[in-house]
Amino acid sequence: MDQDGLKETKARARKAAFARRQAVHSEARSAAGVAHLLSVVMDHKGKVLSGYMPIRTEITPVPVMAAMSAHGPVCVPVIGKPGEPLRFALWTPECEMVEGAFGAFIPATRQFVEPEVLIVPLLAFDRKGGRLGYGGGFYDRTLEGLRDKRPTLAIGYAYSGQEVDAVPLEPTDQLLDAIVTEDGVHWV
Description:
Low-confidence stretches: none
Distance between the termini: 25 Å
Number of domains: 1
């Protein structure tokens, strides 16, 4: 498939994925995922953990981030300019937050760190570790750069209803190491 065809395929997949996620989004399902996510990240106590502040209908990792902040540094992504990788600002449950790019909240005072374990939001995933994001390539660039430096664990966090048979992938797309949903953990 040529580049234009792949972009169109991904655009259609994103539209369908937004609708699927909206249909399955609920506080109860989000809460059900917490124990599964916590079971994965607890094995990495003391390492710098990146979560995210949920936007739209994303499943929330905030309870896990709060629990892990007692065991080591936790950070959240800060989106910069298009084409740049993400930067990660230290986060605590008590820190003052301000609205950042795309409506995602970020710490008002930012001290940047590099995570070793990332909880990654997504629109759709497949069992091979494929991830469909929002289309900016921020996580792909970021994961590639971090993985060039050291082992970096990428954990996709989503509702089980966001699973698809196959995510359309480009050579620059970074695969997930695990996917966690309200139904359990799948290691790739």
